[in-house]
Design a protein that fits this description.
Order of helices and strands of chain A: EEEEEEEEEEE
Order of helices and strands of chain B: EEEEEEEEEEE
Shape of chain A: globular
Radius of gyration of chain B: 13 Å
Number of helices of chain B: 0
Number of strands of chain B: 11
Structural class of chain A: mainly beta
Oligomer: heterodimer
Distance between the termini of chain B: 36 Å
Structural class of chain B: mainly beta
Helix content of chain A: under 10%
Strand content of chain B: over 45%
Chain lengths: 119, 107
């Protein structure tokens, strides 16, 4: 079964750091670009970051550029999001998602992990 | 950045109704548009990619059309399981962006 499972969310104080992980299974992870998408409580979807299959191309939303770092370990079938200098506005459910084609959308999503930034 | 504007933001409809949601891009995005369905507490589900291609396993009552700056998602006969929020997403250029969403509720 094709599956993505996020972990690493939790409660963190403003200015703190958190590292999210996404474990992939059921498909050849190294062949796909991967993404992080977030959703603040009661709000819409916001694209956060994308990384190509070999990590050659990396993109960030302006709202997280310089604070978040996306990475992947194809040997471990894992995607990561290192989040530093967290702000209250980063509070959201964070989803990892697979791009089956870079222009065609995200066809597999994890269940999400919740990040809450609060003092 | 490319902005996507969905209309309406909220839609009240009955089972069996034909429903159309529009997504307008602030600049041309060719056919690099996807549509997603999201139910409360769940991850989004890809419905349509490349503006008009139905994702595998998605019922044929869903269809998409458009290119350039104007796109539509149509549900030909609304079913109880279709009550959800729908989002468009542009993949023409980074940063990728989503529309603000259209919530479809039961009348």
């Amino acid at each position: 079964e094709v599956q993505l499972v996020e972990s690493g969310g939790g409660l963190v104080k403003p200015g703190g750091s958190l590292r999210l992980s996404c474990a992939a299974s059921g498909f050849t992870f190294s062949s796909y670009s991967m993404n992080w998408v977030r959703q603040a409580p009661g709000k819409g979807l916001e694209w956060v970051s994308s990384i190509s299959s070999s990590s050659s191309y990396i993109y960030y939303a302006d709202s997280v550029k310089g604070r978040f770092t996306i990475s992947r370990d194809n040997a471990k079938n894992s995607l990561y999001l290192q989040m530093n200098s967290l702000r209250a506005e980063d509070t959201a459910v964070y989803y990892c998602a697979r791009s089956w084609n870079d222009f065609y959308g995200m066809d597999v999503w994890g269940q999400g992990t919740t990040v809450t930034v609060s003092s | 950045d490319i902005q996507l504007t969905q209309s309406p933001s909220f839609l009240s409809a009955s089972v069996g109704d034909r429903v159309t949601i529009t997504c307008r891009a602030s600049q041309g995005i060719s056919s690099y548009l996807a549509w997603y369905q999201q139910k409360p507490g769940k991850a989004p589900k890809l419905l349509i990619y490349a503006a008009s291609t139905l994702q595998s396993g998605v019922p044929s009552r869903f269809s998409g059309s458009g290119s350039g700056t104007e796109f539509t998602l149509t549900i030909s006969s609304l079913q109880p399981e279709d009550f959800a929020t729908y989002y468009c997403q542009q993949l023409n250029s980074y940063p990728q962006t989503f529309g603000q969403g259209t919530k479809v509720e039961i009348k």
